[in-house]
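Hypothesis: this fold can be encoded by more than one sequence.
Test: take the structure tokens below, design a sequence, compare later.
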């Protein structure tokens, strides 16, 4: 194999790993935000449950005030009954008193229903409190692992970048420039084999004359279709597949 090709293959392998590490690093922050969102969702569920309890307690207090107001009306109507001497007024006041008592019974039924709802809401608060605690613990662990992973990746990336600079320095400048330009446009597949007589990148048939030059390993050969740098190894079959 041509010496330059060997160097380019090593450089390409390093560049591929650098791209992989950079891609993994690019996923760190979205994952961190996802974990934070999970914790925020659990916190939001707890706040909603607490708000529900607070609203029910407010509703119950309002009903208590309504009952107290009705009782005061009953007391006032009763006093008015004692003061009136007219049967018609007496009966009218008695009717108002019964109306107030009916209203009180209805309000008390509502109070019982609200008390049941409050108990259920308080159980929900307890459940969501536990869920939040478990979620916070889980998220803390996940974030810690993610942070460690980020540190490891950045350390690896620094080492790869340093090694990459050393590898690139021993490649001829013009060849390196062509390789780096292709690497940006070909998705990391720049130096490819010609197994079965086709380009390992675009999979198009390579002309026979180029195959001869590639096999001779005396010069840098590029694919006429995609521009990738071609190479040949002894274990490759030069026969074109049907």
């Amino acid at each position: 194999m041509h010496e330059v090709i060997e160097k380019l293959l090593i450089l390409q392998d390093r560049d591929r790993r650098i791209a992989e590490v950079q891609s993994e690093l690019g996923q760190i922050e979205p994952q961190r935000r996802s974990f934070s969102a999970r914790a925020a969702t659990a916190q939001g569920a707890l706040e909603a449950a607490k708000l529900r309890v607070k609203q029910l307690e407010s509703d119950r207090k309002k009903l208590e005030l309504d009952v107290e107001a009705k009782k005061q009306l009953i007391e006032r109507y009763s006093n008015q009954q004692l003061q009136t001497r007219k049967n018609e007024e007496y009966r009218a006041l008695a009717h108002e008193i019964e109306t107030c008592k009916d209203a009180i019974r209805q309000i008390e039924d509502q109070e019982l229903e609200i008390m049941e709802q409050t108990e259920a809401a308080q159980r929900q608060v307890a459940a969501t409190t536990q869920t939040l605690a478990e979620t916070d613990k889980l998220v803390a662990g996940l974030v810690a692992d993610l942070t460690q992973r980020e540190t490891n990746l950045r350390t690896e990336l620094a080492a790869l970048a340093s090694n990459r600079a050393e590898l690139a320095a021993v490649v001829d400048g013009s060849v390196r420039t062509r390789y780096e330009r292709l690497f940006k446009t070909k998705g990391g597949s720049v130096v490819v084999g010609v197994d079965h007589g086709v380009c390992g990148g675009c999979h198009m048939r390579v002309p026979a004359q180029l195959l001869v030059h590639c096999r001779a390993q005396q010069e840098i050969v590029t694919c006429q279709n995609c521009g990738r740098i071609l190479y040949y190894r002894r274990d490759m079959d030069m026969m074109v597949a049907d």
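Helices lie at 3-83, 87-169, 173-185, 208-216. The chain has two domains: 16-169, 173-231.
Hypothesis status: open.
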